[in-house]
Design a protein that fits this description.
mainly alpha; 8 helices
Length: 201
């Protein structure tokens, strides 16, 4: 007879949630990149002639190149500038691989940042080896939800150009404004990454 107690613990609940969202988490890097891809995929305007096999080949190429550049994927950084350089290099890997693929369209920095930043956020959730030392340097994943919250919580006006069309300069300019505003309001006690976790919903 059920007595109001269960053998299902918090670890079981977390594991179930991870399987629902990520399916297989035995390779947290691939699981995070695959899930993060879905967060910006709707912004990609593929030519009608693009085949699914070409889309999969491009994603596989990005995965391989990111790991060839850094076998552990995580950046070995100690400053914000070092992380920014890693971020730019990684996003350019994504953009360049798209440009030279058989898919005849272009990817923007705004789209690439969404993929990379969300992948890092998901890795924080599912990878037990996630390096907490990089959290102070991580960027906020920019999308319409974050732009709205930045307006209501920090008073930052929403840019006229859609985030998915931003170039590299537009992206880093906004990250700087966002980071400075968070630091000012929260007295340096909250990082942009933590602010995003608290406010994105």
């Amino acid at each position: 007879m059920f007595r109001g107690r269960t053998v299902i613990g918090i670890d079981d609940q977390i594991a179930f949630y991870q399987r629902v969202v990520f399916r297989d988490v035995s390779d947290p890097f691939r699981a995070s990149l695959d899930r993060a891809f879905l967060d910006f995929a709707r912004t990609i305007h593929y030519p009608n002639s693009t085949k699914n096999v070409e889309k999969r080949a491009w994603r596989e190429n990005v995965y391989n190149q990111l790991f060839q550049k850094n076998s552990s994927f995580y950046p070995n950084v100690n400053t914000q500038n070092e992380f920014n350089c890693w971020h730019k290099e990684s996003c350019l890997v994504v953009i360049d691989s798209f440009r030279i693929s058989n898919i005849k369209t272009l990817l923007t920095y705004g789209q690439a940042q969404k993929w990379l930043n969300m992948a890092l956020k998901y890795l924080f959730l599912i990878d037990s080896d996630f390096p907490l030392s990089i959290i102070p340097f991580l960027h906020t994943s920019i999308d319409n939800v974050i732009l709205d919250v930045a307006k209501t919580d920090l008073g930052i006006n929403k840019p006229h150009c859609a985030w998915s069309k931003w170039n590299c300069s537009e992206y880093f300019n906004f990250q700087k404004i966002l980071s400075d505003s968070i630091k000012s309001k929260y007295s340096g006690l909250v990082t942009p990454f933590e602010w995003e976790f608290k406010h994105w919903s």
